[in-house]
């Protein structure tokens, strides 16, 4: 695959180190957010390790999101931050966080980069004792006090990965490979027989994954729409339909299956992240809302169609040349996604089955030509 390098335009970042000064040193990247946010760390690690292979990189992410990073050869250690313990009660919180800080300080990090941009993460970064603590101008007020290298930028002008790649300009890296690649262990293939009802053959059939869920309800296209797309696909093409949901979304995927009019080849709402990545690697096309599975699909090489409503695709679309988005750009985009001010014509309902179907046909024809 041809590598694509990008220089971030009109952005001047003062260099802290030259790459050769970082040989044998150690850095920590912190992002205490959701699964999709955790995935956005991967291009940063890849670019650092490609240019400065002798630099040791650790990451800290929220517990429950760490498994998607667990097989990356460039990550020395993953710290899984346990928010439940940290917020359980004052005694447990102090005990857990005091022990965590002692262990972090023992690593003697040369620098720490905070991508969370909130008070809790910046406080942890400060207490690591790292002499160089990198954050952004749109971070919290406390972060800008505790961190000592602030990158000035407008977050609304950049994809989240490009925004994060700015930080490694401080390490003397100024051009970047814009790829999201999820390393999968060979051992995952051993689980195929346990997951699939029967063995998947490379028989010319097109495998299509549909994920109707999303972290917020206002990001969801209607399940009957997904079901109609699946029905149309099955009527026109030789396909297998894979339905995925996260915890608590079994009813949602059952509703999609009902509107399909027949059983899906495979459906599940209880795969772990690495199992989901492995199954998506078997698929040719992913269709879903703005949610983590779309990024996972892109990271394992799948074509993706992502439906955007209250969030901006130029900031959050899956990072892949095989990525397509549908977005109506309503005037209220960027809302807090708590309550819709346009319930009779919300941003997700503005997306029609017909326009999704048009892009599905275009991609399926590309897939068929490549087979």
Structure description:
The chain has 371 residues and is an alpha/beta fold. It has two domains: 5-177, Rossmann fold; 190-370, Rossmann fold. It contains 14 helices and 14 strands. Strands 4-3-2-5-6-7 form a six-stranded parallel sheet, sandwiched between helices. The model is unreliable at 1-12 (pLDDT under 50).
What is the CATH architecture term of the largest domain? 3-Layer(aba) Sandwich
How many β-strand runs? 14
Major pleated sheet: 6 strands, parallel
Instruction: Outline the low-pLDDT stretches.
Output: 1-12
Subunit organisation of the chains: single chain
Ends: how far apart? 18 Å
CATH class of the largest domain: Alpha Beta
Q: Percent range for helical residues? A: 25-40%
Tally of distinct domains: 2
CATH superfamily of the largest domain: Glycogen Phosphorylase B
- CATH structural fold name of the largest domain: Rossmann fold
DSSP strand content: 15-25%
Succession of helices and strands = EEHHEEHHEHEHEHEHEHEHEHEHEHEH
Provide a concise account of the structure shown:
The chain has 371 residues and is an alpha/beta fold. Helices cover 34% and strands 18% of the residues. The protein has two domains: 5-177, Rossmann fold, CATH 3.40.50.2000; 190-370, Glycogen Phosphorylase B (Rossmann fold, 3-Layer(aba) Sandwich).
Describe the structure using short key phrases:
34% helix, disordered N terminus, alpha/beta, 2 domains, Rossmann fold, 371 residues, 6-stranded parallel β-sheet
Topology:
Elements: E1 5-6, E2 26-31, H1 35-39, H2 42-51, E3 56-62, E4 77-81, H3 83-86, H4 90-106, E5 111-114, H5 119-127, E6 132-136, H6 141-146, E7 149-151, H7 160-165, E8 176-177, H8 192-195, E9 206-211, H9 223-236, E10 239-244, H10 250-260, E11 266-268, H11 273-281, E12 285-289, H12 292-299, E13 303-308, H13 313-316, E14 323-327, H14 353-370
Parallel strand pairs: 2-3, 2-5, 3-4, 5-6, 6-7, 9-10, 9-12, 10-11, 12-13, 13-14
Antiparallel strand pairs: 1-8
Helix pairs in contact: 9-10, 9-14, 11-12
């Amino acid at each position: 695959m041809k590598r694509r390098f990008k220089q971030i335009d009109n952005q001047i970042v003062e260099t802290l180190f030259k790459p050769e000064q970082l040989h044998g040193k150690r850095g920590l990247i912190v992002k205490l957010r959701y699964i999709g946010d955790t995935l956005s760390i991967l291009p940063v690690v890849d670019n650092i390790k490609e240019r400065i292979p002798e630099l040791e990189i650790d990451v800290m992410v929220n517990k429950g999101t760490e498994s998607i990073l667990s097989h990356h050869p460039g990550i020395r250690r993953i710290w899984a931050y346990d928010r439940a313990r940290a917020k359980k009660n004052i005694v447990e919180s102090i005990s857990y966080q005091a022990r965590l800080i002692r262990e972090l300080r023992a690593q003697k990090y040369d620098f720490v980069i905070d991508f969370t941009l909130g008070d809790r993460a910046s406080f942890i970064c400060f207490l690591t004792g790292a002499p160089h603590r990198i954050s952004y101008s749109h971070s919290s007020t406390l972060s800008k006090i505790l961190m000592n290298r602030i990158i000035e930028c407008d977050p609304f002008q950049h994809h989240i990965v490009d925004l994060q790649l700015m930080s490694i300009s401080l390490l003397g890296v100024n051009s970047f490979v814009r790829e999201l690649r999820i390393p999968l262990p060979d051992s995952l293939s051993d689980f195929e027989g346990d997951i699939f009802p029967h063995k998947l053959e490379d028989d010319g059939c097109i495998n299509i994954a549909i994920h109707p869920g999303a972290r917020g309800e206002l990001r969801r296209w209607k399940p009957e729409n997904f079901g109609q797309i699946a029905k149309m696909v099955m009527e026109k093409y030789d396909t297998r339909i894979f339905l995925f949901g996260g915890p608590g979304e079994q009813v949602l995927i059952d509703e999609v299956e009902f509107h399909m009019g027949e059983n899906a080849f495979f459906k599940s709402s209880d795969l772990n992240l690495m199992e989901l990545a492995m199954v998506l690697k078997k698929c040719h096309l992913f269709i879903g809302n703005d949610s983590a599975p779309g990024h996972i699909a892109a990271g394992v090489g799948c074509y993706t169609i992502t439906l955007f409503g209250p969030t901006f695709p130029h900031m959050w679309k899956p990072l892949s040349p095989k990525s397509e988005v549908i977005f109506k750009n309503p005037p209220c985009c960027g809302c807090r996604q708590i309550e819709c001010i346009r319930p009779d014509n919300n941003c997700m309902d503005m997306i029609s089955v017909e326009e999704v179907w048009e892009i599905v046909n275009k991609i399926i024809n590309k897939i068929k030509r490549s087979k």
